[in-house]
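Morning!

As promised:
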Amino acid sequence: MLVVSKKYTWLWLIALLLVPIVLWALPGDFFDDSKVILCPSRLFFGIECFGCGMTRAVMHLHHAQFDDATFFNQSSFVIYPLLIALWISWVIKAARQLQVLKV
Amino acid sequence: MKVNFVLCLLITMLSFTASAPSFAVTRSTIVEPMTAEWAANNKTNPNVQALTPEMLQMSIKAFMTLTPSKYKAMTGHKLGFKKTLALKAAQKMLKKDGKGGDSISKGLFILLAIIGLGWIGCGLNTSWDGNDWWVCLLLTALCWLPGVIYALIKMKNYY
């Protein structure tokens, strides 16, 4: 079993806590005009997959811009709460490891 | 004195006639907003019918890059859930129409060429007209590689 030092766990916890704050600080349309196509389906076949637009949609949801989120990918309304749950579980795990949280 | 009065009256009438608006009866004084060509061509499509008048007047380039936030910045009104879905559907429809009926994407063409089905790609891109597809088929039958090379050379004509 890999034993991660406390220092890295602290860094991980700080990074986790900073991510939503940084995303809130950035504008909601930060990823909208990206010219880079990362999706292989779109790159090779010109067909949008079910995940296309998810980053942009989640970013807009993070800023409570529901129309834009619907526009880019409707599945973001399912994915975003799951991401929040995942984030919370990671924060709690890291906090327990550091004994910051005694639950 | 009488001449001066008549002269003044004439000048006054002339200036009034020159400056007054035309009272001619016109068929219609209402100016209808100009609908963009792409909207006029697709006006029977339900996706296009669901769009707002402001969208229908936009150029196709501006429409294809339109998002709900851009629409709000432009008009000051929120798009709403239904109109957002209609916008997305209309953009998809126009994108599909712009690509053409029989042509396939470049990536798919390369993939077909590699697996020895480049002749299908050539045929789809030329709508099975001309010599490209059957020449490619013949060359593919000659141990696959000449067909691949031929398809990749012909790709320049299609994309």
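Chain B touches chain A at residues 67-69, 72, 78-81, 84-85, 87-88, 99, 105-108, 110-111 (CB under 8 Å).

Hope this helps with the figure draft.
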